[in-house]
Specification:
mainly alpha; about 210 residues
Length: about 210
């Protein structure tokens, strides 16, 4: 089936960085358990990559490429491309926000907020589509946990949160607060970012959204 990552094609208002339904059913009984067959990188400092993330993300994308291409061919469509930026360039644009200054907006017809939001959607979609194209009947929850726990891209999203949260641009702060990381992943954030998210929900929120302190 097409899990929530691909359901973005059904959105009337265009793709958005919404929570994926991570409580979706898992593999069929007796089916092969899903494990990503592609080795993932970890962020590592390098002279050519002062942020520590770009090399890992590009390596992962290269390793995932064959699965992305197979999935796109099989389904005859993809959710990647909403930004109008080549996905590698989108990754470089995203990572640049962790440096001294972001690179020039690759979509000058769009605001920085819109260009970054769409670039983030494309990068995450690339990973999700690559994952569900592999054998093993992955559930939405399994793919989400893999993305946020095991990939440099997931770590990149987490690292981006405090940068955008401290921006002078209120739209970028909103992106950090409400759109960057799904609520079910809040508890994996560093404490300061986690507290920002929980505060943004107001003083009354469901305890199920606060697994760090239950």
């Amino acid at each position: 089936m097409l899990i929530a990552a691909l359901a973005l094609l059904e959105e009337e208002k265009g793709p958005v960085l919404e929570d994926f339904p991570e409580d979706a059913l898992g593999p069929r009984a007796g089916a092969e358990a899903w494990v990503c067959r592609v080795p993932m990188s970890r962020p590592a400092e390098a002279a050519s990559d002062p942020t520590g993330y770009l090399g890992g993300v590009l390596s992962e994308m290269n390793n995932l490429g064959v699965w992305y291409d197979l999935g796109k061919e099989k389904r005859g469509r993809t959710t990647v491309g909403v930004s109008g930026i080549e996905v590698e360039a989108a990754a470089r644009f995203i990572v640049s926000f962790l440096g001294d200054a972001p690179v020039e907006n690759p979509r000058p017809d769009l605001s920085v907020f819109d260009a970054l939001k769409l670039a983030l959607e494309d990068l995450r979609a690339y990973y999700f589509e690559s994952a569900v194209s592999q054998p093993g009947n992955a559930s939405a929850g399994q793919v989400a946990e893999w993305f946020w726990d095991e990939t440099s891209a997931g770590k990149l999203f987490m690292a981006l949160e405090p940068v955008l949260a401290g921006s002078d641009d209120k739209k970028l702060r909103f992106l950090a607060e409400r759109m960057l990381i799904p609520r079910r992943q809040f508890h994996k954030m560093p404490e300061a970012g986690y507290q920002r998210y929980m505060a943004s929900l107001g003083t009354r929120h469901l305890s199920s959204l606060d697994p760090k302190h239950t």
